[in-house]
Amino acid sequence: MSVASAEFHRMLKALADVERSDAKEWESYSVRGKRFGYYWPKTQTVGLKQTLSEQEALVSERPDVFEVQFTAGGFGWVVVHLDGVEADELTELVYEAWRLSAPEELVEQVPPPC
After folding, report:
1. 79 Cβ partners below 8 Å, 6+ apart?
2. Hey, where are the domains in the chain?
3. Which residues pair with residue 51 across a beta bridge?
4. Are 100 and 49 in contact (CB under 8 A)?
5. Which InterPro entries is this protein grouped with (predicted)?
6. N or C, which terminus of the chain has less Cβ within 10 Å?
7. Which of the 8 DSSP states describes residue 84?
């Protein structure tokens, strides 16, 4: 059970209007100016926007894979350790993070992962 960084980046390419910004230590991802994710190559972790209830559920179920990053604006951000998550689960979490930030008309154009 592990997701490579290349696979994570392919997940992002399946979404519409994803904008990438590079900083010294991380990459951040937005859709139409609204941030929904981060990637830290050094630690092989991803930070994803989620609902507060999803953040709580993920962290309480598997604290070795998920941890609280922060909460803001009614959302709970979750750190995901790529070496502890399966690709299908991460695909769903990435889609959900994107969906929480994307405008409704854009979400209607991109079906959820199966």
Report:
1. 45, 46, 47, 66, 67, 68, 69
2. 5-109
3. 75
4. yes
5. YjbR-like_sf, YjbR/MT2646/Rv2570-like
6. C
7. G
Residues 27-76: tens digit of each pLDDT: 999 999 999 999 999 999 999 999 999 999 999 999 999 999 999 989 99
Structure tokens at 41: 């190559």
Tokens of 47: 């930070």
Q: Are 82 and 2 in contact (CB under 8 A)?
A: yes
Q: Residue 88 class from Cβ within 10 Å (0-12 exposed, 13-18 middle, 19+ buried)? A: exposed
**17 phi, psi to nearest 5 deg:** 60, 35
Task: Report CA-CA distances (Å) from 1 to 5, 61, 77, 93, 96.
Answer: 13, 16, 22, 16, 21
**Which amino acid, residue 82?**
L
pLDDT digits (tens, 9 = 90+) for 83-92: 999 999 999 9
Name residue, tokens 């309480």: 60
Domain 5-109: give its CATH code.
3.90.1150.30
Pick from 82, 43, 88, 48: nearest CA to 65: 82
